[in-house]
Amino acid sequence: MKFPATIYSRVVVPRGFRFAATAAGLKKGGGPDLALVEAPAGATAAAVFTSNRVVAAPLEVGREHLVRSRGRVRAVIVNSGNANCATRSGRAACEKVCREAAARLGIPAREVFPSSTGVIGVELPVKKILRALPRLGAGRSDGRRAVMGFARAIMTTDTRPKLAAARFRCGRKRALLRSASSRGQATLLGIAKGAGMIQPRLHLAGQSWHRPLAGVNTGGTPVPPHATMLVYLFTDAAASPEALARALRAACAQTFNRISVDGDTSTNDTVLLLASGASGARVASAADARRFATALAAVCRSLAWQIVADGEGVQHVVELRVEGARTESEAEQVARAIANSPLVKTAWAGADPNWGRILAAVGNAGVPVDPRRVDIFLGSQLVCRGGRAVPFNERRAHRELSQRQFPVRVRLGRGRAATTFWTCDLTADYVRVNAHYRS
Amino acid sequence: MKFPATIYSRVVVPRGFRFAATAAGLKKGGGPDLALVEAPAGATAAAVFTSNRVVAAPLEVGREHLVRSRGRVRAVIVNSGNANCATRSGRAACEKVCREAAARLGIPAREVFPSSTGVIGVELPVKKILRALPRLGAGRSDGRRAVMGFARAIMTTDTRPKLAAARFRCGRKRALLRSASSRGQATLLGIAKGAGMIQPRLHLAGQSWHRPLAGVNTGGTPVPPHATMLVYLFTDAAASPEALARALRAACAQTFNRISVDGDTSTNDTVLLLASGASGARVASAADARRFATALAAVCRSLAWQIVADGEGVQHVVELRVEGARTESEAEQVARAIANSPLVKTAWAGADPNWGRILAAVGNAGVPVDPRRVDIFLGSQLVCRGGRAVPFNERRAHRELSQRQFPVRVRLGRGRAATTFWTCDLTADYVRVNAHYRS
Predict the structure, then answer these.
(1) A346 assigned to active site
(2) Residue of B nearest to A215 (CA)
(3) What's the whole-number mean pLDDT along residues A303-326?
(4) DSSP code of B367?
(5) Rounded to two decimals, what is the model's pTM?
(6) B7 falls in which pLDDT band (50, 70, 90)?
(7) B337 at the A interface (CB within 8 A)?
(8) Does the pLDDT value for residue B212 go beyond 50?
(9) Between chains, do A359 and B226 touch, taking CB under 8 Å as contact?
(10) Of A179, A294, B54, B409, whose CB count within 10 A is highest?
């Protein structure tokens, strides 16, 4: 592509957004757990949500706000430490927080987009959140420190904040001399959290939404954190909600919907894309849309990789490539079967070139594969051709599989479709993180 | 039922069978790894095999032998230490072993039923097996010690042999005074192995078999054991191969096809049912068939439970009951989603009453469940009603989940169908067993 997106390691803050974070006392360990983003008037938005049949209250409220505001969002409010899922007052609690935040910012409640992540089955401590709102509002800033504060406040079992930024060129909204926009430069910043319960299957087509759970909590047990995936994408280009939705769905299909840490899909997975238009640049032409899509995909790919790499107990990141399928969804089906096989993942934990388990997983994928046509590559070496062992350098294989990241390639010999999937090993640490009573 | 089957803890050897085991040098650690069962002339048989697309050579040979012999089996030969899967010479090697065993026993090769379990992708060391055949043949005996020797020789990662026996009444073949058969008493003995790579999905209908893999091994890597499930069922009643097949499929559907240790289905799973007729009793009437089916189901249930209880790293056995489904296969689909969720299994490892993860797994099962109709019981307590937390005694829940075995019950509120599924927790020991390089 002529204008490839560049991923910036350092934080690049898109214009028009202000970030804030504070400690509302929701997280057991303490620390920042309430975060806010403010967007300028006219900011547009699109979002996608989990396809789990069980959906937390904020996802329902957020979706309805997007519908009622016709894709306008002026503020995002996120809490960690409580998923507001399977709770009786979940819906009312979420709407109360949105109303209060809206009143303080002088915007309609329907233009506030809420998210929650943390324990499930426990009432959202609304009062704590409301008490913290003034502090939160006062802290708004467009500085890098504020952005990092936001990124940290939304973390649960994450060990580090996850950010990615890109710049892309697009047409000018109007001629503003001596401004970046006169060169049609726009900025994109993505912030994500997630470490476990990660196999996002974001609902990208249709609108088969489910009502929120009305959960009771009358002294019921607090349950360990969901390490839901939350992703927020900010650009200072201008774009219609429809254009944002198209770009977001295309990007998610190839990135967040192509990763798995443990094969469990959360009840709270959310990806929101916000466009402030503050750079003066506008995604107008088809060429603009292509460049925007490229930048968006690059940022989402980086965030998806960071989520897998920071997965609970993860030692190895695996780039799984499945080729020679009849359709891409067939390739995806085989990739998920391999990525979610405990025996494959534990072999990876041991840097063990155990292609037999991969072959068995392919045979279990529910795709009518002919094993005699299956080739398997571990790292740089072909280890199985036509379903048969072939000689390979085992020490080299063990060395390559001992790396922090390595590729695994499977050819099905059925057609021309392929997919790339990011996954990881399964370690004793994953078990420790998740088996620890009341972790 | 009027004549319930009794499970005998001690070994009860059905008449007409002789067992033997020896060390052929196939297992790395040494010890018995080659086992034989001899059945009398006229013995009938039925078998079911894995539904994995990847199928080891002995499964193909065994199935063809059953077809060519019209369900007659005079001998079963099993080796551990090598799965004879994904090997180039697999088919020829397996046939060679059957021919040699047949010659020694003076029976047609097509009446020899072969099985293998162990490393995949390594040529079967035929010479070692052939050298051991004389020893093996010489050791044949109908004594309990020989039976236990057989049960131990087929083990891989199993920590203990798995046996179950039952007696059942059925009609007399012919009047033999002063013989057990004059009371129409028949005996059933089951012997099994399996600890990991356990989610048998035995192919019970149709005949969509796949050709064996032709695997190459030219110095390719030996791969750690498959802990395939192998099950051998012996009765001294007489029954037609068709009657055996009917009873076997019905029993497997509710037992071996209702367990999961790690959700991985092996390439070598095999269940064989052999009838010697040596008791003089014959499964003739519909009532006989019912009593036989009851005994067979009881033995298979016991063996299935023993396999889960001896699963790799298993601390807790979970009796998972899914009720209120539209169809039984829908209930099974939800049960597998719960049983194979790493977050659910790790919570069980911590004796953590974490119903939120179970609810999330139900939402991911691919069944259009309405979360507001889902009830969850942990141990003896209702912990989630209508998708909401309800108050429960947490210390009691933790105490119950700390037991070696406990029940989990999920009601979907969609219909009247239900299923019972046996599974287990996921522990750091499972990871250690399977991540250990060249384990």
Answers:
(1) no
(2) B388
(3) 97
(4) S
(5) 0.91
(6) low
(7) no
(8) no
(9) no
(10) B54
Q: How far apart are CA A340 and CA A374, in angstroms?
A: 19
Say how many residues make up chain A.
439
* Facing A427 at nearest CB: one of B54, B217, B431: B431
Confidence class for position B223, pLDDT limits 50, 70, 90: very low
Examine the pLDDT at A181 and tell me if it is beyond 90: no
In which element (H, E) is residue B104 found? helix B90-105
Q: Give the model confidence (pLDDT) of A4-52 as tens digits.
A: 455 666 788 999 999 999 999 998 888 999 999 999 999 999 999 999 9
Residue-wise pLDDT for A110-136, tens only, equals: 999 999 998 888 889 999 999 999 999
pLDDT of residue B203: 79
| B436 part of contact set with chain A, CB < 8 Å | yes
CB contact under 8 Å between B360 and A54, yes or no, is yes
Q: Is 80 exceeded by the pLDDT of residue A241? A: yes
- Pick from B262, B29, B386: which is nearest to A344 by CA? B262
Q: How far apart are the first and last CA of chain B?
A: 46
CB of A343 closer than 8 Å to CB of B196: yes
Of A54, A211, A352, Cβ closest to residue B437: A352
Crossing angle for the helix pair A57-68 and A90-105, to the nearest 10 degrees = 50
* Integer angstrom CA distances of residue B274 from A160, A276, A387, B113: 59, 74, 32, 11
Among residues B228, B265, B294, B420, the one annotated as catalytic is: B228
Residue tagged 């969850």 (tokens): B376
C-alpha–C-alpha distance, residues A351 and A214, integer Å: 45
**Is the minimum CB–CB distance between B424 and chain A shorter than 8 Å?**
no
Which residue of A216, A224, A359 is in closest CB contact with B54?
A359
